[in-house]
Design a protein that fits this description.
Radius of gyration: 28 Å
Shape: globular
Helix content: 25-40%
Number of helices: 21
Strand content: 15-25%
Oligomer: single chain
Structural class: alpha/beta
Length: 700
């Protein structure tokens, strides 16, 4: 191991600590039980993606550049992998304890996650019939012998495997459980009783291999490397990038294994056989007695009475419409007069969608241009863009087909948009387009006018209800001209454009951030920096923040996930404080603040402080000029920094600790929900009846 910087930590281990924070929410007795179960599922899906992407890429790197040293930890790829495998194993044990603790408590409320052995006699009869009629007919059991090669195990597909014996000879049998089957079977009768499908297949395995004796059985799930890239040798073979991405998605299904999960301990012989077939080491095998698939956590609330659901789930919350938007007000007209900031999920995405809908039908609108990274599977936004194109507007959509795990969804949407007459762009070969910009161009009295939307999150109507993000709607013509220049540059493949207001990566975002930090360093102890981010890994920015801390600048950071800079290191980062918030909603907004008072510079952005964002993606940060909107953003930051329930403070050793509870308990997300509900009431409606009567009479 080489020397590391004293104020940094390894990216992957930092991420694992963050995911452990997610599991802490699942263990928190103050969180409703069904929400705790969802946190176990979130932890599980997070870990799946971590192995597919981060572990997969490190394994590749260990073969290509085995001696490369990570400057943040001083470790080679192989040393990083060893540290990851060591750190993950206790997380599996913690997940298992957490799952069974939750499901045991759910029994009190009539919700039972069952094993086959715990079924009642009438339920066994029902399950047996269901297996015979609905499961067995679509299964494809296979043995392995000289005429039947070892099957290709697809990524994250549950299988039931067994050691079998037939006429004195041993063989291996395998049954993939197809996606056409549900993950669990709900049983008839009172209460909510269900059993995972894998448990049923395990029980009736002999029926799938008639004549064979089952000596040993296990459910297994293989995780494959999914870190595909598109700059391979085939990059010039396909004229259409969309067609190329279809080929790449097929390739993902066959990439190398990185992890094997088993439902129970198996014999050394069977484990060695499986590892040999999958080219895995023992430390890449994990036991998961809790179900490997937990999507059913999101179904259970829908099977309960309203009274029971209210006990076991978060109180329902509907994103609010700000009270400053009068009923039936035209959004196009409103934004022309005042900037508007929507704070998701506390406030609804509908005002922006309404503005887009109006633009699709407004005779004064000439064009709509938008960048798309992720969309929901059902999207009103696409309907409005298609309607605009069909109404003769010039609609340009820059859609990123390489949004990881959303590639097929984006391919499907791009085809629909193209059919409606939209101009479709796919961005750049070596740079993902991750910016969130929408530009509406109107002709008013012979003059061109711009309305611009710039956000921190995707145009995804589903995640806008569960991710915290900011969306600025502005008629500032300087920002509009920059946005127009941005789209012109995207159309001609120019990454080196110049802008007066917007910060655009990979050209000027990082350099400007470094300059802004330098500006605060010149103020010494009077310097102030406040940042809200998802991840911090960019070494140049990390080193500059360390220098600022040494210069006396007071730096406060709210970093949800990966954070490779460590606070409180003597002589290095003593003036740096970092907190992380994990709660009901996924913290996703990015905010940069430099300075204080009237001299403060504030941006909202699509970019984290990660090298991939600052150097290898097209990102946009937008300045906030409106005093009212700056005040609103400061309130959000203040709530996050005052949170002493869901917030944890990052410590110098990389661990997280509960923040001080000297003040009254405050959950920032709960408070911002309450604030949004209060702000949704129009100012007139907040006045008392007496005030309104007095005003009415005084006006006569």
């Amino acid at each position: 191991m080489s020397e590391k910087l004293p104020y940094t930590q390894n990216r992957e281990l930092s991420w694992l600590r963050f995911n452990d924070r997610v599991l802490e929410e699942a263990m928190d007795a103050t969180v409703p039980l069904l929400e705790r179960l969802k946190f176990v599922e979130i932890f599980t899906s997070n870990l799946d993606e971590f192995f597919m992407i981060r572990v997969g890429s490190l394994l590749d790197f260990s073969h290509v550049n085995p001696n490369d040293i990570d400057p943040k930890s001083g470790m080679t790829p192989k040393e990083q992998l060893s540290a990851i495998y060591r750190a993950v194993r206790p997380l599996y044990a913690k997940r298992e304890r957490c799952f069974f603790d939750i499901t045991n408590q759910l029994k009190i409320h009539g919700i039972f996650c069952l094993t086959y052995q715990s079924l009642r006699s009438d339920e066994i009869k029902f399950v047996k019939q269901y297996f015979k009629q609905s499961i067995a007919p679509i299964l494809s059991p296979q043995i392995v012998d000289s005429h039947h090669p070892f099957p290709h195990l697809q990524n994250k597909v549950l299988h039931v495997a067994a050691r079998l014996k037939y006429k004195g000879k041993e063989t291996f049998g395998c049954v993939p459980i197809p996606s056409a089957l549900p993950d669990v079977l709900y049983l008839p009768g009172s209460g909510v009783r269900f059993i995972p499908i894998g448990e049923i297949v395990m029980e009736y395995l002999e029926q799938l291999f008639p004549g064979y004796t089952c000596m040993e059985r296990v459910q297994l799930c293989l995780t494959r490397n999914a870190d595909i890239t598109t700059d391979d040798d085939a990059s010039d073979l396909y004229g259409d990038f969309r067609e190329k991405m279809q080929k790449v998605l097929g390739k993902r299904k066959r990439l190398a294994p990185v992890r094997l999960e088993l439902s129970n301990v198996i014999s050394p012989e069977l484990e060695q056989y499986l590892r040999a077939k999958m080219s895995l080491e023992h430390h890449q095998v994990y036991i998961s007695r809790a179900p490997m698939k937990l999507k059913f956590a999101y179904e259970l609330a829908g099977k309960l009475s309203e009274a029971r659901r209210s006990i076991l789930s978060y109180p329902p919350f509907t994103p609010q419409t700000p009270g400053c938007i009068p009923p039936q007000e035209k959004m196009l007209r409103l934004v022309q007069h005042d900037d508007l900031l929507l704070s998701y999920p506390y406030e609804s995405m509908n005002p922006f969608l309404q503005m887009l809908k109006e633009a699709a039908n407004d005779p004064s609108v000439i064009s709509i241009k938008i960048t798309i990274y992720r969309l929901a599977t059902k999207a009103k936004l696409v309907d409005y863009l298609c309607a605009a194109a069909e109404n003769g507007k010039d609609v340009t959509v820059l859609i990123e087909l390489r949004a990881r795990f959303d590639e097929q969804n984006n391919i499907d949407w791009s085809e629909r948009l193209e059919e409606a007459g939209c101009t479709i762009l796919y961005g750049f070969q070596d740079y993902k387009v991750h910016s969130k910009v929408c530009l509406i161009t109107r002709r008013e009295h012979g003059a061109i006018r711009y309305l611009t939307q710039i956000g921190t999150g995707n145009y995804n109507e589903k995640t806008a209800a569960i991710y915290t993000d900011l969306s600025l709607l502005t008629a500032d013509q300087g920002i509009g001209r920059d946005a127009n220049e941005f789209f012109k540059n995207m159309m001609i493949g120019n990454l080196n454009g110049t802008y007066d207001h917007l910060l655009v990566a990979p050209v000027c975002l990082k350099s400007t951030l470094l300059d802004l930090i330098d500006r605060e360093m010149q103020k010494g102890a009077e310097g102030r920096i406040v940042l809200k981010l998802n991840s911090v890994t960019d070494l140049d920015l990390i080193q500059k923040l360390r220098d600022a801390s040494c210069a006396g600048v007071q730096i406060t950071m709210i970093v949800r996930g990966i954070c490779c800079i460590l606070p409180g290191i003597p002589g290095e980062t003593e003036n740096l404080k970092i907190v992380s918030i994990v709660g009901r909603y996924l913290e996703h907004s990015r905010i940069y603040c430099f300075g204080s008072g009237s001299q403060e510079t504030m941006y909202i952005a699509s970019a984290d402080f990660m090298t991939r964002n600052t150097e290898r993606r097209v990102e946009v940060a937008c300045p906030i000029y409106s005093p009212q909107i700056r005040e609103k953003i400061h309130h959000i930051l203040d709530m996050c920094l005052r949170d002493n329930i869901r917030s944890r403070q990052l410590m110098p050793d990389g661990s997280y600790s509960h923040v001080s509870e000297d003040s009254a308990p405050l959950d920032c997300q709960q408070q911002l929900m309450a604030d949004a509900m209060e702000a949704s009431v129009p100012a007139d409606a907040k006045k008392s009846l007496w005030q309104r009567l007095k005003e009415a009479f005084s006006g006569q």
